[in-house]
Structures are given as C-alpha cells and as structure tokens.
Write a structure and sequence with these properties.
Blueprint lengths: L4 H17 L18 H4 L7 H16 L4 H25 L5 H20 L7 H30 E2 L2 E2 L2 H7 L16 H24 L2 H23 L3 H29 L8 H10 L3 H11 L4 H6 L10 H25 L3 H9 L4 H30 L2 H6 L6 H10 L4 H26 L21 H28 L2 E3 L3 E4 L2 H5 L4 H32 L5 H13 L2 H11 L11 H24 L4 H9 L4 H12 L1 H16 L16 H10 L3 H28 L3 H5 L2
Length: 729
C-alpha cells in the first residue's frame, strides 16, 4: 500500500497554518484583518467544535510522519478531513459571518487531504493529485455554478421562509412577462392558439396513422405537434417579454446559423478570392462586445442616423424594437456560428465525397446524403450557442429595444429599478428552463448516431468545390454582410472623432482626451480583473478536461455535465444567481473584485474544458503511460509531458478566456460596484445616458486592445485548422 507521506504532511501544515494564523472570519471586505479574535483559535471560544479543523490537520501530520502502510491510515485521513470540513462549513453557516482567508486555506487544505485519503485507500486511481483534483473541481462547481442556481430557484418559490407558488404565479401572469388577453389585441391569442393546435394535432395524427397504422406514433405526433403549434400561435399573437425573447432567439439562431454554415462552405470550398476575407470576420465577435453593433446601428439607422436621416431624410424609430435588436444580434452572432461550423466542415473526410462522385452523385445528392448528415452536430451546437447568446444578450435590447420588454432587460429592471429580487429570480428561472429545453432538444435531435469522420487513416484529395452559381450567390450574401458590418464598425470609429453625430461632424480628439480621467483607468482595471481570471479559468478547464478524459471515477459524467452547465446557461441567469447567493452571510462577496473574477472564471471555464479536450484527444495516452512506468506521479506527468505538448492550445485558451472576460456584460452587470467598474458596463451606461461619443471612443480603444491580444491566439488556432475554436462547439 502506497502512502503519500510528503503530500500529507505538507497539506496538513498548510491547513494548520491557515487555521492558526489567518483570519477565519472577516469584517467588511478586508480579507487579511490581523486580529487574533478572528483566527480559528480566537473563534473557538463560542464555537468549540471548530477545534476539529485544527485536530484534523494535526492528525494528518501525525499519520504522515508515522507513514502507516495499510488502508487504515488512509481511512483515518479521509474521516478526519471530512469531519473537519463539515464542521468548518457548518460553523460559517451558523454564525452568518463572512469567510476569511484562513477559512479558505483551511477548508481547501482539508479538501486536499480528503483527496489524498481517497487515493491512499484505493477509491481513486492516479494518486493524490487526481483525488484532490476531483474534489477541488467538484467543490468549486457546486459552490460557484450549482449553488447560485439553487438559490435562484429558492428565491422564486420561498417568501419569508414559507414555500409558496403565489409569487411565482403572480409574476408569470404579469402583462410584462406574457400578455394574452387585452383590448388592444386584434385577435384572441388563446382562442386562435387552441384552434391551430387542435387542427395541427388532428392533421399530424392522421398522417402518422396513414404511415404507420399504429396508435402510439399517431398519438405522440398529434399531441406533440398540436401542443407545440398551439403554444407558438398563442405567443406569436400575444405580447410580453417571454414572447419577444423566444421569437427573437429562434429567428436569430436560425438566420445566424444558416449564414454561418454558408460562410463555412465558402471558406472551405469556394473558388473565388473573396473567401480570404472570412479570416477577419472570424475575429470580430471575439474582440467586440455584442452591444457595440447596437451602438453602431444608432449611428446608422437612428433618428439622426447617417442612412435614415442624412441620406434618406427620415426621422424614424423603426429600428428601435425587435427589428433593430434582431439585426444587431445577427450581425454579432453569425461569425460565432461560422467559427463553430468552419471546424466541422474542415474535419469532413474527403474520401466519402470522392466515393460519392465516383458513383456519379450530383452536387445536391452529395450535399443531402453526405455533407448534411455529417454537419448536424455542428449545426446543433451552433444554433444552441447562438440562441443562448441571443437570450442572454442584455446590451442590444437595452439600447435598441425601444421600450419593448425582453427577459434580460426585465431582469435588470426588476433588480435595479423595482428592487424586487423575487421577480428577477422568477424571470431568471424561466430563462434557465428555456435554455435547458433547447439543450435537451439539441441532444435529442442528434440522438445516438455516430458522426465520426476523422479516423486516423490518411485521406488525400480536395473537397468538392461549390457549383459556380451557388458559389456566386453565397459570395454575394457574404459581401453584403461584410459591407454592412464594415459600415457599422466604421461608424463607431468615425463617431469617436466627431463632436456630435448627426449635428456637428467637426473633427475632434476631445472624446479620447476625456477618457484619460475615467475611461482609461476603468479599462486598465478591467484588464487586471480579466487577467486575474484568465489563468485559473484556463487551468481549471484543463484540469477538468484531463480528469474526465483520462480517468474513470464515480460521478465523472456528472462532473463534466455540471462544469459545462455554465456554457449552456445565459450570463444573465448566472449574474442573478451570484447576486442572490453571495450578497450576505458566510459567502458574502458583493462589492469586491473577487466576485467579478469568480464570475469570469466560471463563465469562461467551458472554453478551457473544450480546448483542453480537443488538444488531449490528439495526444497518444501511451506517452503518459510511459511516464507512469518510470514512476512519475500524475502531477509530474501532467507538468512535464502533457502540458509541453499542448502548450499552444493552453496559450490559445488562456487568451480567449481573457478576451471573453473583457467583453462580458450580462453576467457582471449586477456585480459591478463603485470601486470595481468594468469597461463594457461603462460604455453601455454612456450610450444609455446620451454621451454616445464617449462610448464610441472607448469602444474603439477596447477593440484595438483586444485585437492586439487576440491575433497570436487566432494565428495559433488557424495553424491547428480551427481545432481550438471548433472544440468550443
């Protein structure tokens, strides 16, 4: 039986040192208050069970020194660490005092000792690094992903300590949320929805009976399509934030994914030189917050817009509403869909197309029978990602909504305007239910089919070029899209150098000079917070990818699913969960920079997981087995063998995590405080309150800074033929 004496002694000393010398609790926002009364021993006077934390650390040190060579030593370490961990957590929860640095160090040390115990008794293979890594990952995911969601659910159904659905039903019946009966509605949505649903259900049931002659499929298709069409008709004819957000997400998801797929085909199979312009297009959504395009649309299509007012002589609000929000989101999210689908199209096995052409298949048959079935996973991932981004988008509905309610903006108004956390939690719960439904529909659509196209066997040849007419048509669509995008981005640049857009176009540098007092410091603070989050985000993502891909343990699938949950949840929902979960009590973090860093870490972590998995799947496990044969531990193997071989993927994931944090809006809009402002929130507030020229100047500066940061990562990603970015899908 292997004993891990050195690891046990080291982590026992770390735990004991944190308990004895660092503040167990804190007053206010200061994590290092040097006071004996706030340390672990100082708090034992009123809470004597807290002594078990120190005793568990002493027990681990003693067992490490003795070096027991049977399972009993491992069980003792595991039991002592578990008891100390539970006592420490319960003490913090019972007192309601905010945790200090000593509590963090001690509890994480006990968690590590529990992992060492798991490895020593043989419940986990791979040594103490794997055991501690599993417990660390699980603990952090529970605390910073699952716990905020549970608190949000609790806030929506618990009022003054009593479980009730009255408040939940009141908000769901609110006209702001969904309006189905009103004198201003020209038709009755409920009546028409019932008619359409019944008619569609009967037709679907009849067709299913004619095809199968079985009652099961007949009933399933009839009920499914009938209910779906009925509800869709009701919401389509009604009003409210739910209806607006859902239809916007569906339209933007379908259009953006279709355009992204067309552009991916152009990049891989076009014979025209314009396909080289797709590379810059793929960078824009990464370095630009989505709402910047909404800001540009005000310049171009607002009441004093260049196109609407200067060229056409119109003063119109037509682009302030769902139309303007939808156009801005399509322009912002189409490149994201293209990034996902470009990697999928590149990975297709050319030999399958060559075989189809050998059998004299025409281009349409080749697309229908070969290309379309194989790109289904990419299409599903792209539409899922775009719909979630649309549902979570906060800036564009705020700037271009024109007073039309959307779920993200109503969540914001519920918190900041109506001061009703239960209403915000209810709408956040609805957003969560929508995104999880989309996620499971995606999984159902893909089913259990196999989509393997990369087998390791060499495949020569070139992909089938697009028919010239199709190539020309898709290129025309791309050129139009690129022209509109260039016009909007150009308006941001031009607007940052004029005094007042639409009124006084005199050239000036005052907009940039004004940034020196407030904009530049906020930009630098944001860069510091994003950099502080990028390393742990990429590191934790790589750790989870390595554990779930290379090791088998109980709960592996649950760990991976929970870690990726923040990828499938709108940022607005996570922001609501954080403000509710970490606003008071032992986990109070609001008003500190740490809560913003944590939001960045766990929002960007799925990027690190996907990039790590994409890199590790290309690494032969025999290299790690050879290292283990030479008696190297898992941590040593990871540090000296795995990390050097996937260094480029790690660097790419690190930079993408940094840039993603710099452009974040929805998940941190509720977390900023006077001492910790963010550049995206500042731009949004300037645009909302009328100083749009300052917002344009700061947006231009932000785009330039992020372009410099992202170019190395983009170069590495293109060298790996979209391996990193396609892994996000």
């Amino acid at each position: 039986m292997i004993t891990y004496r050195r690891e046990t002694i080291a982590w026992g000393c770390v735990t004991l040192g944190g308990f004895l010398f660092l503040p167990w609790e804190r007053v206010g926002k200061v994590f290092l208050a040097a006071s004996w009364s706030h340390t672990g021993p100082g708090r034992m006077g009123g809470h004597w069970p807290l002594a078990l934390v120190g005793l568990a650390a002493c027990l681990a040190i003693a067992l490490g020194i003795v070096g027991s060579r049977d399972r009993r030593g491992g069980w003792a370490i595991l039991a002592g660490a578990t008891c100390g961990l539970l006592v420490g957590i319960l003490q913090l929860a019972a007192t309601g005092r905010a945790f200090g640095l000593g509590a963090v160090v001690s509890l994480l040390g006990l968690l590590t000792l529990a992992g060492i115990g798991l490895a020593q008794v043989g419940l986990v293979r791979g040594g103490p690094f794997v055991g501690a890594g599993i417990l660390w990952s699980a603990g952090l995911i529970i605390l910073f992903i699952l716990f905020p969601l549970v608190i949000m659910l609790q806030a929506s159904i618990v009022i003054q300590g009593h479980l009730t659905a009255a408040g939940l039903l009141r908000y769901l019946r609110s006209p702001i949320f969904l309006l189905l009966r009103h004198p201003e509605l020209t038709v009755d949505p409920i009546r028409w929805g019932a008619r359409v649903g019944i008619g569609t259900g009967l037709i679907a049931a009849a067709l299913a009976w004619g095809c199968t002659r079985r009652p099961g499929p007949c009933l399933g298709w009839g009920l499914g399509l009938g209910i779906g069409m009925g509800l869709s008709t009701m919401m389509g004819l009604g009003l409210g934030a739910l209806r607006n957000s859902l239809f916007l997400a569906v339209v933007v998801g379908a259009v953006s994914t279709g355009l992204g797929f067309a552009f991916a085909l152009l990049e891989s199979r076009s014979t025209l030189p314009t396909r080289r312009l797709l590379a810059p297009l793929s960078i824009l959504p990464i370095i630009t917050p989505a709402f910047v395009l909404g800001l540009a649309m005000i310049y171009m299509f607002g009441r004093r817009g260049f196109i609407t007012h200067t060229l056409l002589g119109l003063s119109t609000n037509v682009f302030f509403g769902p139309l303007g929000v939808g156009v801005a989101q399509i322009l912002a999210f189409t490149p994201i869909a293209y990034l996902v689908l470009a990697g999928v199209v590149h990975s297709l096995d050319i030999t399958m197309e060559e075989a189809a052409r050998t059998l004299r298949a025409d281009p349409w048959t080749l697309f229908r029978t070969i290309l379309w079935p194989l790109v289904r996973p990419g299409l599903a991932n792209a539409i899922l990602l775009v719909m979630i981004e649309s549902l979570a988008d906060f800036g564009n509905p705020l700037l271009l909504g024109g007073g039309v309610p959307f779920l993200p903006t109503e969540i914001f108004y519920a918190i900041e305007g109506r001061f009703d956390q239960q209403e915000a939690a209810t709408y956040g719960l609805v957003l969560l239910a929508i995104t999880l439904t989309i996620f499971f529909l995606q999984r159902y659509w893909l089913g259990r089919r196999s989509y393997v196209t990369v087998t390791g066997k060499p495949s020569g040849g070139r992909p089938t070029p697009l028919p010239f007419a199709v190539d020309l048509a898709l290129t025309g669509v791309f050129v139009l899209f690129a022209a509109v995008a260039a016009l909007l981005y150009g308006s941001i640049l031009f607007g940052s150098f004029v005094k007042l857009w639409g009124i006084d176009h005199t050239f000036t540098l005052k907009n940039y000079q004004d940034l020196m007092s407030h904009g530049i410091p906020v930009l630098l603070d944001t860069m510091g917070l994003a950099a502080a989050a990028a390393i742990p985000s990429a590191g934790l993502g790589l750790l989870i990818a390595y554990l779930t891909l290379r090791h088998r343990f109980f709960g592996r699938t649950t760990l991976e699913f929970s870690a990726m949950l923040s990828y499938a949840i709108p940022g607005t929902v996570m922001g609501i969960g954080y403000i509710l979960a970490f606003n008071a009590g032992a986990l109070q973090l609001t008003g500190t920079g740490l809560i913003i860093i944590l939001a960045f870490i766990f929002r960007g972590m799925p990027v690190g997981i996907r990039s790590g998995m994409a890199a590790l799947t290309q690494l032969d496990p025999s290299l790690e087995e050879a290292s283990s044969t030479l008696k190297a531990g898992t941590a040593t193997t990871l540090r000296r063998v795995v990390v050097p071989l996937i260094r480029s993927a790690i660097i790419t994931g690190l930079i993408y995590s940094f840039v993603r944090a710099m452009t974040a809006v929805s998940q941190v809009i509720f977390l900023v405080s006077p001492g910790h402002d963010l550049v995206t929130i500042l731009i949004l507030s300037w645009a909302e309150y009328g100083t749009i020229w300052r917002g344009a100047a700061l947006s231009t500066l932000l785009i330039l800074v992020l372009a410099v940061c992202i170019l190395p990562a983009h170069w590495l990603a293109r060298r790996q033929r979209f391996g990193q970015v396609a892994g996000m899908g």
